[in-house]
Task: structure prediction
Amino acid sequence: MANALAPRTGASDGADAAKEIKGAGFGPMYNVMRFIGERSAAHFFRRVEVIGGHDVPKDGPFILCCTHFSTIMDVAIISAELPHRRPIHYWAKRGLYKRQPFRWILHSSGNIQVDRQTKNNQDLFAGTFKAMEAGEAIGLFPEGGSYTEHRLHSMKAGAAWAALEYAKHMGSDKTKVTIVPASINYTDKSRFRSDAVFQFGPAFSVDEYTQEFLSDAQVATEVAARKDFPFDVQPRDPLASVPHTPGPSIIVSGDNGPHPETRMRLGLDIGDQSRNGSALQTPLDPNGPTLDRAETNGVSLLQTPSSTVSKAPSSSSGARSAVKKLTDRIGAEIYKLTIDAPDWATWHGIKMARELIWTRGGSLPLRDLVPISNAIVTILNLDTPESRKAKEALVTLQAMVIASSTDVYTLNALEKAFGRRSSPRSTSILALIPTGQDAAQALPSLKLSLLYFGEQLLWLLVRLPYVLPLALVYVPAYAVGWGLSLRYASHEEESMASAKSLCAFVIAALTHGLVIFVVAALMLFTPPGWLLGLGVSYAIEKLHVWLLNESYDRIKKLVASIRVLLAVIGVRSGVMPQRGSEDEAVRLAREILYDRPAIQWSYIKTLRMGGLGAGDSAGEKEERQTKAMERPPIASVMGAAIESRKRAQIALAELLATDQVRASTLSNYLPPVRK
Result:
């Protein structure tokens, strides 16, 4: 039977599209793609925690509205962890369907083709309506794309338009469509073996808003007219995704956030409904009114000039108001599930504080990731000297982590192994980058560094008999994934995990295939040989996952021990002194973190540009080339990283000891202090 959900590309090729997929909208590639996503997520992340979801419908249509911080990895986690193992559709732009085999793969994996150029909402959402009629699930990202931000991005109105236009398509205010708000938060989305939390908010019915939407005179007229023209026989253009629907980014004071003054970036106003500037640019008219910036009571709003509202033919007040309210509701529910940092400095401070409090990878209670992080936001923005000092010290630590190409968990292990050779002369310097002299004093003795290096090397040699076979299978995958992520995705943090994991999956699949082939060849390609090959491949994969966390942590420690040993030898010989606050390249590592994410590419690019604020004119490019800086040898900043970690730990401890923090919600989550 031809699939009713197959996205149509017009009257001329609708029959061909219908032949491409059989069943209820998902072909064989859906399970293949879901398997790839499951394995990629399982290998990239140490833990994926699922919270809530008990009211996600087992059957019937629903729209999952989720945050979108990590491109394909978000899709992989949703598809793998959605309750009841329900398959879910995603929108895919029309341009991806131009050539085979991509067209067949997209169709077969259940994606709904969308055309951004259409201005007819019924055409825009035709494939989505077909899926809803069949009781299918739809996955949408209301932010409109994947972003790297320190807080929730502005909401687009596409999900609300799709849900309410479905009521118009059905000609009834009883759609039985459910909205399921959700978020995916990461401890560090671009770092291998980090953690992810997939959290669901309370589901609610679209029918709460359909009456107001359908009460609009224009919508009601269109619904009545459509009853004489069955949807199935109307020739339609390809399906279309929601064009970007800009709305105001506003500041709201309330109790939804972790602290009294909650800054909330939504696409629509969730406050006073009579406030100016609530008119929307609708999907029907993506080229409609432009949005002007206005100041209202000291709050920056985006305001639609009233003279331009009439340009959007399907956006009369009733329908527009219903869409606005539903988008507000979706945004407010998603916001409750996210981490809300007011600036990048706070965002970096959150991550560093978590890794100093929960000192080992995998020790942070993931179910409390969002409340813990928002509680840290609160204490880092208190108007106290301790708060300001801790925030600056934590940002400095993040900068030194980037400069030394390591992580806090590894620095924690070094601190435990080496102990403390010296103490800061005064707490007043905790917020500063260590000097070269301080960095050199933070290094261990040559004896300690040699012993630590020997310990890590011995661990690897003892386990070499079973680590080596795993390395032969997986090192090519990790090397290729790492290399491609640096080359093609390093400037976009949200793409790095996807590039690493998916590319690595392809290479690992090839090496596993080679293992199966070799084992089968040794047994002359007999059926038992193929079965044994499959068994060996399966055992290698399971052993790899079982040993991955410890092996990866040990390899990081081994690399760090080599760098520390080189640093100690360099200082003792005078060949490579430790660098600190007097070095411009080291200072830049800290300065870039105030307006951008903490990734290696930001640091490397800034060094190549010769500093911050360099332009792209011909003269500026020439000047930039003369000012370009080389990255300091990693071993030359290991002392600064070790010292910065200790200073941040002291500053954070002083902050946690204050009465304000002891009375805050963060105290409910802190682990017991070891004596």
User: Anything to note?
Assistant: Residues 454-548 form one domain. The chain has three domains: 14-229+237-242+253-261+314-335, 344-443+578-668, 454-548. The first strand starts at residue 45 and ends at 51.
